[in-house]
Specification:
The protein is of the alpha/beta class. The protein has 14 helices and 14 strands. Keywords: Hydrolase, Metal-binding.
Length: 377
């Protein structure tokens, strides 16, 4: 407990009785096995994944503190726990600061502390601008990172007074900047100004339309595999699959979002993931809360699968393919355990790729992923 005293100052405990409607949990449910900050702070030594709520939503122009973290907990704790090799803890909610900047600072401190002791942290938001606190938790230690954002829009609306609408500008251009690469998944073209995408392309950042994500979902796995930070706005959902989002009738469905979370869990680099934009008052059926809970379940599933992977230096566990395309001699590796692929760049680094990239190279075509990696400094 003494190791976490400084964290407790920033946190409020979970009211487990309220969340379970005073019924408690059955044997095998998540709520029965998760280590929770309720009457006392949990021992985090064994935990691989730590949940923390942050109901700050002033960045989206909303008053008060969001009850979204507890609504998600209510749904998540009721699910059955299948992954005994993945230990989880819940340290409650970050106290809302007197100002928006205070809330950012508190969340940043909590995240930095947890990541510093090797924990993978999941933030239950709150508004999407809390992604800034995720980023600054890395920047405080001058860690160069790759990030993935999942959202129907690209939040660079500099004319908006709301931080949730323009935080990406600060995230991608802050000085000094530790963002080596940013990928934006599932944007919907009619919500995004064409020049905004041109700007992202000039910065060598990659943006994937929602149609591309849906049609080539497996191609998103290498994108997510490299990331350290992932930020998911539920605006990426089609309304039918997350009734609390009112932005669009189109977007991701539930299974696609769960698959993206599974990919995130499998990533060996992911340290911090945030799920934002859920307003429980717009979710009378509770289906959006349950949708997010299912995403968390698949995150655990991905962590369990990813733990089976070995390092690339243990070549006995990989199928090795030597190919030549455009007079470039390179190597592709495929894991015998998970089926994932890597390809070698001219500097002999291996980057995450897909079976499709290997097929293109085998046909003497240059994979676009290889080209984009070469373009980046």
């Amino acid at each position: 407990m003494s190791d976490y005293l400084n964290l407790v100052d920033f946190l409020e405990p979970v009211n487990t009785a309220l969340i379970s409607d005073d019924l408690g949990y059955k044997e095998g449910q998540v709520g029965k096995v998760i280590s929770v900050f309720d009457e006392g702070f949990p021992d985090l030594d064994a935990a691989q994944i730590v949940l923390v709520g942050c109901g700050e939503q002033r960045g989206a122009g909303l008053r008060g503190t969001s009850t979204a973290p507890d609504a998600i907990r209510k749904a998540f704790y009721s699910l059955y726990y299948w992954h005994n090799d993945v230990q989880i803890a819940d340290i409650g909610n970050v106290k809302t600061g007197s100002s928006l900047a205070d809330s950012y600072a508190a969340l940043k401190i909590v995240l930095r502390e947890l990541m510093g002791i090797g924990k993978r942290v999941v933030v239950l938001g709150g508004s999407h601008d809390l992604t800034l606190a995720q980023y600054y938790a890395f920047a405080a230690d001058e860690k160069a990172i790759e990030a993935v954002g999942v959202d129907a829009v690209v939040d660079i609306h500099i004319d908006s007074p709301q931080r949730a609408d323009n935080f990406l500008m600060e995230l991608l251009t802050a000085e000094p900047n530790f963002m080596t690469h940013y990928n934006h998944l599932a944007f919907q073209s009619y919500f995004v100004h064409p020049r905004m995408l041109e700007t992202m392309d000039k910065l060598r950042f990659d943006c994937f339309r929602v149609g591309t994500v849906k049609e080539h979902l497996e191609e998103m796995e290498p994108v997510i595999r490299n990331c350290h930070l992932l930020s998911f706005d539920i605006a990426a959902f089609a309304h039918a699959f997350a009734p609390a989002t009112r932005l669009s009738p189109n977007g991701l469905n539930g299974e696609e979002a769960c698959t993206l979370m599974q990919y995130a869990g499998m990533s060996p680099h992911l340290q911090c993931l945030g799920i934002y934009g859920f307003v429980p008052e717009q979710d009378p059926s509770g289906l959006t809360a349950m949708q997010v809970a299912h995403m968390l379940w698949y995150l655990l599933d991905g962590c369990s699968r990813g733990a089976r992977e070995v390092g690339l230096d243990e070549r006995d566990h990989f199928n090795e393919f030597h190919t030549m395309f455009a007079e470039v001699d390179t190597v592709f590796l495929q894991s015998k355990r998970t089926g994932r692929w890597w390809m070698q760049l001219p500097d002999e680094r291996f980057i995450a790729c897909s079976h499709r990239d290997y097929q293109q190279a085998a046909n003497n075509d240059i994979p676009e992923r290889w080209l984009r990696a070469q373009e980046r400094p």
